[in-house]
């Protein structure tokens, strides 16, 4: 049985961790990972809530298996805003 507070917690988590694929890059984004979930429909992701993989259950909120088209989308977003810091806190140009 799911309690009201449990389902509310799940809804909050979905709202805060679901990031539109066209949103500006986060410094923790890379071609191989995303901060938060950039899947269009996380509920049908084969890695949804998978330990050590899914942003919804990882403490650092990093998705280790982003959508198949993420690498290309990352390059598009990077071209739109080339002055971002990577994980090593270096300026990406």
What does this structure look like?
By secondary structure, this protein is of the alpha+beta class. It has one domain. It is 27% helix and 9% strand. It contains 2 helices and 4 strands. A hairpin with a 5-residue loop joins strand 3 and strand 4.
List keywords for this structure.
single chain, alpha+beta, two-stranded antiparallel sheet
Distance between the termini: 51 Å
Mean pLDDT: 81
Poorly predicted runs are 1-5
The number of domains is 1
Q: Determine the number of helices (DSSP H or I, runs of at least 4 residues).
A: 2
Shape: globular
Give the % helix: 25-40%
| Side-by-side strand order of the widest sheet | 1-2
* Biggest pleated sheet: 2 strands, antiparallel
- Report the structural category: alpha+beta
Strand content: 5-15%
Radius of gyration: 14 Å
Number of strand elements: 4
Order of helices and strands: HEEHEE
Secondary structure: elements and pairs:
Elements: H1 4-17, E1 34-35, E2 62-63, H2 70-80, E3 84-85, E4 91-92
Antiparallel strand pairs: 1-2, 3-4
Brief overview:
This protein is α+β, with helices and mostly antiparallel strands and 93 residues long. The protein has two helices and four strands, in the order αββαββ. Strands 1-2 form a two-stranded antiparallel ribbon. A two-stranded antiparallel ribbon has the order 3-4.
């Amino acid at each position: 049985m799911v309690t009201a507070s449990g389902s509310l917690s799940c809804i909050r988590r979905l709202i805060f961790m679901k990031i539109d694929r066209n949103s500006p890059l986060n410094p923790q984004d890379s071609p191989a990972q995303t901060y938060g979930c950039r899947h269009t429909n996380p509920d049908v992701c084969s890695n949804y809530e998978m330990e050590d993989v899914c942003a919804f259950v990882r403490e650092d909120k990093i998705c280790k298996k982003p959508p198949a088209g993420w690498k290309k989308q990352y390059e598009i977003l990077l071209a739109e805003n080339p002055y971002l810091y990577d994980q090593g806190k270096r300026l990406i140009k």
